[in-house]
Amino acid sequence: MTDTTSQPDGPAIGLDSTVPSTWSPNTWFAVISMAATSFALVSAEFLPAGLLTPMARDLGISEGTAGQVVTATASVGAVAALLSNVLIGKLNRKTVLVGLSALAIGSNLLAALATDFWLLLLGRAGLGVALSGFWALSVAVVARLVGTNATGRGMAIVTLGVSLATIAAPSMGALISDWLGWRAATAITAGLAALAMLLQVLSLPRLPASTSNSLVDVFQLMKRRAVQLGMLAILLLMTGHFAGSVYVRPFLEQVTLLDTGPIALALLGFGVAAVIGNVAGGRLADANIRMALAVTSALMAFAALALIFWGAYSAIAFSLVTLWGFAFGMAPVVLPTNLSRGAADALEAAGSLMVVSFQVAISIGAVFGGYIVDHYGASGPLTLTAVLAASTIVLALLQARS
Fold first, then answer.
1. Is residue 199 assigned to a domain?
2. Is residue 1 assigned to a domain?
3. Which CATH number do you get for residue 305?
């Protein structure tokens, strides 16, 4: 790939494994636009973690029910991810990405203006489509922007948007909801999506479809053992994570007895640690993906289990929430890398399976987490987190060495 292929209005680009030693400004701009999109979309996805209490109070529902806005995003996203690469067919991938950002803008605005729980769910469902479509295409698009030999470097930048979103969404969402209300916090995510869409329009080159997948192609990929194990690892670890993390604020309120300010600070620590974990996860995944998965899972299992026993002590709770954030920061790099190693020849189809796995995990985690928190208290979901994360350690150790 040469630098000229990354010109926003230049020739359409295809996949090329040859990359220059340094990226041109246009290449950087295009990759950063993808990172900005991941930041905007994931900020909207994670926002409920900091808004559950005021959102539930305003709409007259329980916190467990309010947590199902996460389920709506994820369950719709799972179906959309499975069909996304089939439905978009031969459409220009730039057009698709810009359209997905426009959908995110409308969905976030609908959620912000929702007068009842069902309108809120509808807005979150639209966000699920935007999220799943973006992530299903992300690896393949980044590979085309920077070349297959630099895909890891490019995806590290894109997934950095995920880690940064863990700072902006839960912590700032909690503060903004106290200052201006949860609706204002939700509306801000629409503005972030609009900025990301503008960057895409200005920076992305034309990206004609290089392949058109069918459902048969996607399901055929699932026959590969490495892909099966990669999907299972995502299902276990992310189900555990979202079963507990969505209800961290109620835990800190009811068990640690913190006010809004300290809770926002704890969530900020979670986000900062996630950024560091993103970098560490990338380095460890390059060195030993099997060990990277085991370490990520072990840290999350320990953090959740220790919170159950010692979460009443504020200093310990702060430390453990930070450790959890570090583990979660590793996950968006480690889990897709673990899955894609068995599907290097079918990145778009593998991207669909990756997103389906993530979204199904989020849905299951939110449903079970919501049920457990309503029936067994704020500590209950963390038990499920610890058990499933520990199970992922076993799975990682059973995988073939790479």
1. yes
2. no
3. 1.20.1250.20
The values of phi and psi at residue 11, to 5°, are: -65, 155
Cβ partners under 8 Å of residue 51, min gap 6: 173, 174, 177, 182, 185, 186
Considering the entire predicted model, what is its pTM? 0.74
Q: How far apart are CA 75 and CA 233, in angstroms?
A: 18
Nearest to 297 by CA among 261, 243, 334, 264: 334
User: For residue range 63-107, what is the model confidence (pLDDT) as tens digits?
Assistant: 677 777 766 777 777 777 777 767 777 788 899 999 999 999 999
Q: What is the pLDDT of residue 374?
A: 83
Percent over 90 (pLDDT), the chain:
28
Residue 386 tokens, joined: 């610890």
Length of the chain (residues): 402
Which amino acid appears at position 318 of this protein? F
Distance separating alpha carbons of residues 227 and 205, to the nearest angstrom:
31
What domain count does the chain have? 1
Does 306 map to a domain? Answer: yes
Query: Does residue 361 sit within a domain?
Result: yes
Question: What is the average pLDDT across 38-56?
Answer: 80
Residue 239: which domain range?
A: 21-398
CB of 162 closer than 8 Å to CB of 44: no
Residues 367, 58: contact at Cβ < 8 Å?
A: no
